[in-house]
Amino acid sequence: MEKRVYNFSPGPAVLPLPALEQAQRDLTALPGVGISILEISHRSKTFTEIIEQAEANLRKLLEIPDGYRVLFLQGGAQMQFAMVPMNFLAGAGKSADYILTGSWGKKAIAAANTQGDVRVAWDGGETNYDHVPEQANLNLDPNSAYVHITSNETIQGVQFPTEPDTGNVPLVCDASSDILSRPVPIKKYGILYACAQKNAGPAGVTIVVIRDDLVKQSPDNLPPMLSYKAMAKGKSLLNTPPVFGVYMIKLVTDWLLDKIGGLEQMAEINRKKADMLCEVIDGSAGFYSVHAAPGSRSMMNVAFRLADPALDGPFLEQAAARGLASLKGHRSVGGCRASIYNAMPVEGVQLLCEFMLEFCKKNR
């Protein structure tokens, strides 16, 4: 069997080994069914039980109350960039507020601009998106259709520590890269959505948690596949859903509940990993530096630079030789990036920290 390396990729990303091993064991034939999950009908009793259990797990982990729907959709977060304004901005006679904290927020704004008027309530571009705003710095319209945030920007490595106060305006959140990493006060959100391939499962399935009153507001003149109302009515089964992706979400959330113990425990582990890594960076006397400002640093994606960019290549090559893979940073920020999602074990971060200390000592 091929030896697994520590995969620091920003997505598709590392998955919990117990979930992968269970999928491997049952891939040829699900126990008691005799059919692979890759072959099973989405209308079958077996898949109905799988998707219902995946939803039940999400409801338990995120403490989703009555009055919210859980949908399993396709198209990734970028489909949601379009669906949200199609359902709630186009023809509404209002603008929508977007809080711009990085690259994915820019893409969300670009999609929304095709459907209606968009206001940028705050833009961190002056400092290359190295922090999230304080409440006092937000220019929010109390009459806007909704307020959109990206809770965690994978490229810049900034994360909202708490939700902005949007009053009576629905808060819409792209939580793609930090869903299930910490407890979330769902009642503060009108919509929370996330592509699965960072923390919840493989690419191909998107989780949407949406308040019932917003489902009802979805207009009737949209194509069914782009309508929250139609998708909710069809229980995510208007067409063949991403069956394997939903199955993997079920296995990943089983792991979070049964092995980790819930999101409080997961957040504690994630904070430990991020603190370990940032301690090495902050203690390097400038050899390494974190892109994000203190107070806005992500627990999921640590974007960092070496003081001498000429060392980036050797750093990445030597890290890969140690089994530390996919550490190259995004071109818009440069340097390196360690994505330390839920499934990245503490041991992987420890090994990275040891390598970084050694590399610093040899190349200072």
User: Mind telling me which CATH architecture of the largest domain this is?
Assistant: 3-Layer(aba) Sandwich
Enumerate the strands of the largest sheet in spatial order, edge to edge or round the barrel: 2-10-9-8-5-3-4
What share of residues is helical?
25-40%
Termini gap: 38 Å
Which topology of the largest domain does CATH recognise?
Aspartate Aminotransferase, domain 2
Question: Could you explain how this protein is built, in words?
Answer:
The chain has helices at residues 17-26, 45-62, 76-88, 103-112, 212-217, 228-233, 243-260, 263-282, 312-321, 346-363; strands spanning 6-7, 68-73, 95-100, 117-123, 147-150, 152-153, 158-159, 171-174, 191-195, 206-211, 288-290, 301-306, 324-325, 336-339. It is of the alpha/beta class. It has two domains: 18-260, Aspartate Aminotransferase, domain 2 (3-Layer(aba) Sandwich), CATH 3.40.640; 262-363, Alpha-Beta Complex (Aspartate Aminotransferase, domain 1). It has a seven-stranded mixed beta sheet, with helices on both faces. A three-stranded antiparallel beta sheet has the order 11-12-14, with helices on one face. Helix 3 packs across helix 4 (103-112) and helix 8 packs parallel to helix 10. It is globular. The model has no long low-confidence stretch (mean pLDDT 97).
